[in-house]
Amino acid sequence: QSALTQPRSVSGSPGQSVTISCTGTTSDVGGYDYVSWYQQHPGKAPKLMIYDVSKRPSGVPDRFSGSKSGNTASLTISGLQAEDEADYYCCSYAGSYTLVFGGGTKLAVL
Amino acid sequence: EVHLVESGGGLVQPGGSLRLSCAASGFIFSNCWMSWVRQAPGKGLEWVANINLDGTEKYYVDSVKGRFTISRDNTKNSLYLQINSLRAEDTAVYFCARAINTGIDFFDSWGQGTLVTVSS
């Protein structure tokens, strides 16, 4: 049950695109299509942004997209906006009804 | 609208116990797996436990096995987390969350969290 690996921070200017990676193993990210992404603003509860690798819940802008290749999942945010500045966490099923999160990535919109 | 409200957090000495509660509304509670997720101050999210629809199946992260117990009361639309033998590293905000697809997929709704502080 080791945490998934995410970059500590990423940054981009308004209107640009950024991609956040989430690396695991064949026992979690690589083994299942149950990867989700959460946005968390300071002092707030996490908010679901992507589920099942690339599906978007209703209400989430289509600027947010997800993908996976092998043991690495990715969240891409295009057309960056100031309100996108937040912490982002990936999460994956890890077998035996357990889940594991990534360490989190702080997104700065410059 | 789904609404989850946690309570029961507080300051507790090492070795002590607490019972966290989560009151659910806005959905059919008995139809949903539920989870606890925690976040230590300034740190990332950590999945803690899952429970199935009738409370007969429970799953935990290794670091809390034998000390934490997840439970639910479908007649009261409530989720619980009994936390015993508390350690400093259990200091965190504890969130309850609705878990989708038998608890193996994603969390679509979260409470605001309740803070547990373990300190002498």
Briefly, what is this?
The complex is a heterodimer of chains A (110) and B (120). Chain A is mostly beta strands and 110 residues long. Chain A has strands at 9-12, 18-23, 35-40, 47-50, 64-69, 72-77, 86-93, 99-101, 105-109.
Helical region count of chain A? 0
Which structural class fits the helix and strand makeup of chain A? mainly beta
Rounded average pLDDT of chain B:
97
Helix content class of chain B: under 10%
Percentage of residues in strands of chain B: over 45%
Biggest interface, chains and residues, is: A-B, 27 and 25 residues
Helix content of chain A: under 10%
Mean pLDDT of chain A comes to 97
| Low-confidence runs of chain A | none
Uncertain residue ranges of chain B: none
- DSSP, total strands of chain B: 11
Explain how this protein is built.
The complex is a heterodimer of chains A (110) and B (120). Chain A is 0% helix and 44% strand. Chain A has strands spanning 9-12, 18-23, 35-40, 47-50, 64-69, 72-77, 86-93, 99-101, 105-109. Chain B has 120 residues and is mostly beta strands. Chain B contains no helices and 11 strands. The radius of gyration of chain B is 13 Å and the shape is globular. The model of chain B has no long low-confidence stretch (mean pLDDT 97). Chains A and B meet through strand 3, strand 7 and strand 8 of A and strand 5 and strand 10 of B.
Helices and strands, with pairings:
The complex is a heterodimer of chains A (110) and B (120).
Chain A: E1 9-12, E2 18-23, E3 35-40, E4 47-50, E5 64-69, E6 72-77, E7 86-93, E8 99-101, E9 105-109
Chain B: E1 3-7, E2 10-12, E3 18-25, E4 33-39, E5 45-51, E6 58-60, E7 68-73, E8 78-83, E9 92-99, E10 107-110, E11 114-118
Parallel strand pairs in B: 2-11
Antiparallel strand pairs in B: 1-3, 3-8, 4-5, 4-9, 5-6, 7-8, 9-10, 9-11
